[in-house]
Specification:
- With about 100 residues, the chain is α/β, with parallel strands linked by helices.
- Helices cover about 30% and strands about 20% of the residues.
- The chain has 3 helices and 3 strands; from the N terminus they run E-H-E-H-E-H.
- The chain has helices at about 30-40, 55-60, 85-100; strands at about 15-20, 45-50, 70-75.
- The protein has a 3-stranded parallel beta sheet, covered by helices on one side.
- Helix 2 (about 55-60) links the parallel strand 2 and strand 3 (about 70-75).
- The chain is globular and about 35 Å long.
């Protein structure tokens, strides 16, 4: 199924996309394509890995070459139910905040 990333992005405003996962990406090549395409747009994609799984692919996204701008963040949270509000918000918004200020 083909998806149009631009359909949800308005370059006049920043777009924040949040993915929460507990496992392996089944569509790595499609995810790479979307991340590369969206790096030229006003969009930031934050991934949160939950649980004890090793999120090798998501952890290496900050090193993805070919992007105009680093437009991804990754945080791992072992137990979402035990996280307090501060930990949750820091994990979700820390890298997005840097991106908004042009520091990422």
């Amino acid at each position: 199924m083909s998806r149009k990333v631009g359909a949800i992005v308005n370059d006049a405003q920043s777009t924040f996309i949040l993915f929460i996962t507990d496992g392996v990406n089944a569509d790595i090549s499609e995810t790479d394509r979307i991340i590369l395409k969206s790096s030229d747009m006003n969009v930031f994609i934050q991934f949160i890995g939950i649980g004890y799984y090793q999120f090798d692919y998501l952890e290496q996204l900050d090193n993805m070459s070919g992007r105009k701008r680093d437009n991804t963040g990754f945080s791992k949270m072992t137990d979402l139910e035990k996280a307090d509000d501060n930990e949750l918000y820091m994990n979700v918004l820390r890298q997005f905040s840097l991106w908004l200020r042009g520091q990422q």
